[in-house]
What we know:
This protein is an all-alpha fold.
Amino acid sequence: MTKSITFNIEEGLIEAATRRAASEHTTLDDLLRRWVTDYAERQEAVRAFDALTQELSGKVRIGRKLTREQMNER
């Protein structure tokens, strides 16, 4: 089920966004729908990560103390 919502956005901004969406072969509605979906899913991912962190807290050991450099490695 979908629900219609209303935004109050400056007219020039809407026109510019609509032109850009058209140049990308999509619509402003589709872009907004994708943004809202991504926004909501990111929050769920953060919650899942926080829950996992809580669950593993105190249960995972690496066997040695890491240096500052090791902790900051990516």
